[in-house]
Amino acid sequence: MQLSDMGASNSCFAAVVVDIPSRALSEPFAYGVPEQLACDIELGCSVLIPFGRRVALGYVIDIAPELDELSFVEGVSPARVKPLRAIVAGSSCASYFAEAALWMSGEYVASLAECLRLFLPPGGTPRLKRRADGTYEVEPPAVAEARERVVSLTIDGNAYVPPANATRQRQLLAALSCGPVTTRELNLLYTDLSAAIRTLEKKGVVQVEERRAWRRADSGTSLSSACAVQPRQLTAGQVEALDAIERARRERAASVVLVDGVTGSGKTEVYLSAIERVLADGGEACVLVPEISLTAQTVGRFRSRFGESVAVFHSRLSAGERLDQWDMVRTGAARVVVGARSALFCPFRNLKLIVIDEEHEQSYKQGSAPRYHAREVAAHIARRLRIPLVLGSATPSAEALGRCAEGSYLGQRWQRVEMPERPGGAVLPRVVVADLRREFAAGSRSMFSQVLYDELMGVAERGEKAVLLHNRRGFAPFLMCRECGCVPTCKHCSTALTYHERTHTLECHTCGATYHVRPYPAVGSACPKCGSRYLAKMGLGTQQVEDALRAIMPPHVQVIRMDADSTKAKDAHKQLLEQFDAAECAVLLGTQMIAKGLDFPEVTLVGVVNADYALKMPDFRAQERAYDLLEQVAGRAGRGERPGTVVIQTYLPDNPVIRAVAGHDRSLFTAYDLAQREEASYPPYVRLANVVVWGRDERATRAYAERFAALVREAVADVSLAFVDPVQEGELSLADPARSPVVLGPTSCVVERAKDRFRFHFMVKCPLGYHVSRVLGECLRELGSQSDISVSVDVDAYDLM
Length: 801
Fold this sequence. Notes:
By secondary structure, this protein is α/β, with parallel strands linked by helices. It has six domains: 2-139, no CATH class; 147-212, Arc Repressor Mutant, subunit A (Orthogonal Bundle); 224-424, P-loop containing nucleotide triphosphate hydrolases (Rossmann fold, 3-Layer(aba) Sandwich); 426-472 and 555-680, P-loop containing nucleotide triphosphate hydrolases (Rossmann fold, 3-Layer(aba) Sandwich); 474-540, no CATH class; 687-795, 2-Layer Sandwich (Alpha-Beta Plaits). 29% of the residues lie in helices and 24% in strands. It is built from 21 helices and 35 strands. It has an eight-stranded mixed beta sheet, with helices on both faces. The chain has a seven-stranded mixed beta sheet with strand order 1-7-4-5-2-3-6. Helix 18 (656-662) runs antiparallel to helix 19 (667-680). It is globular, with a radius of gyration of 30 Å. The two termini are 48 Å apart. Residues 1-7 and 723-737 have low confidence and may be disordered.
């Protein structure tokens, strides 16, 4: 670390973001760069700075020879500029990190430091620690680089002949005859050769060097679907999609290409072919997938095509693995990154293509600050770099379809390419709707309708495979006392507890609290309210469906459950899918994580145990999510030579979602859903922001939420604040009440209490071009913070619970 002399003259100036996650610090600060630091300072490096009466860490986002030439900093008096104290770490960011972080901070009303941290190496940045005496020390990064020792022959070593009794030396020379070998590899071949290495190193026969090593992020996979064989001929839809991507790339048009292809239409081949062209031109590509369960299959396909130049980046990697994958991208060792939404922030050097698979997925929306949407951040980066963004889905989001219908959004061209056919003559599966009302009227009390039971038996008889969806983990959604009606709820949250049969526990899926219980008819069963022993299991969870499946399926059929409980361990997703892939005959039972992207040609049956769970959630997107889930899981069937069948069990067979999936006709659902949204003023016709306020004191929290909402109402009523996004064309007329911003609430959240905090929220609906982020940010700064109350601002909200 280099420490500067506080009295030294400044060689240049730097704009620095202070590493303190506060919305009040929404802009960078200007600092002088002493002459002895000028040669080492670079964009993205970490620096030690004086900040008020303390010292702090910061990140350099611009450097200029003169103060008035600094970007992101305006109107600073030279007399107030202090010098940097030290440079504590070099840069490891993409070139566009600063501009993107500033945009995210303003767009999502988040602290600038939080947004900037997304672009920093995971665990690889230093931290500032305050000592007991009030002074500070810089701690090294939490995660160290992996190093390895490499042994190689010297020029003179080729002529060396070991003594006759030097067996270990002969083994070492034989191993090195084909080139350098790491000490780890030598130990695997011949156990410990360290003595022989030291002896020959002293004689000048071998040399030992230390170099950067990469911890492998995955151990490969045996999944048959993890190999992408290049087809002899592309379908017409694939050719059209590739042409659209290539045009946008050649013209540097920063277009968004929506690949709207039915399940199994070959969207992955479009991505692979487009990336091949990018790599041939020396560029890099980023591919986002929504589920960790898809990573092994997707990474396998990309590595089968592009070899070891593919990096993988997601939350299930260890800290060391994440840092190594990051550095592989930074150094150029990897030119294709496949991962979850965080992969978007890797330090690309020459990014030329971004792909978001299953773009409709809610998992692309970050649930904690900064609450960004990966699609919107990717679109912004694509605009800045003038590169294409490719969105792929069999069930595109209403927002994506709406923008394609308009032709542009925020000055960026949006176009849709349809891929309506499956390659190789495969056809969409036959869909059967099982009316559970008729099953009940006929006296059936089984969780499997007659048609689903018959189809499962057929799969077992033919030695095929089936996928069964039930989007409720646990054994039963809740317990209820049959005498007093009490439903046990979490002591810390206002949510019903889910019963897990394997562990005999009630678990809160909001805060993670666990309570041991014995439901009826077990000895010791007791209602917490009235003491009755009739505390019964109500509803179905995946564990209960698993037990029922094992009871009816023949012994040769493997039953594999895949949900949040069975996939807690590292690589559990991959291991369960490999088990399913290797089985001769099996049923894969799971929650929504099995519904998308997975490609098993042997699957001929898909069953949905109860399609109604998602349809009646208190959320305007509930029907869209239900349609996406059902259409995606239906697409897992019939992807090979044998035709597929889908059985959907429901009490609502006439619902537009069910009818659309059954008929493979999206318009049956979208026409109904969009009409409802337009009438009620919901996205994609407006922007929606959800503000949540929570705290331990219910009265104080409610009062704070009411003051915040009142300030926002006052602000949106001021016509002078009706600014339009500068990239959008046209002006907004707020004289039209239908287009004026509306503030709804505050009121209690659906989950009124979580982790002992009371929760209130209000929503703001506004026209598409209205700067709701700026209004909310200014109102929040005017209101000020309160130590015992927390606030989250969710712009373009997806979770309204």
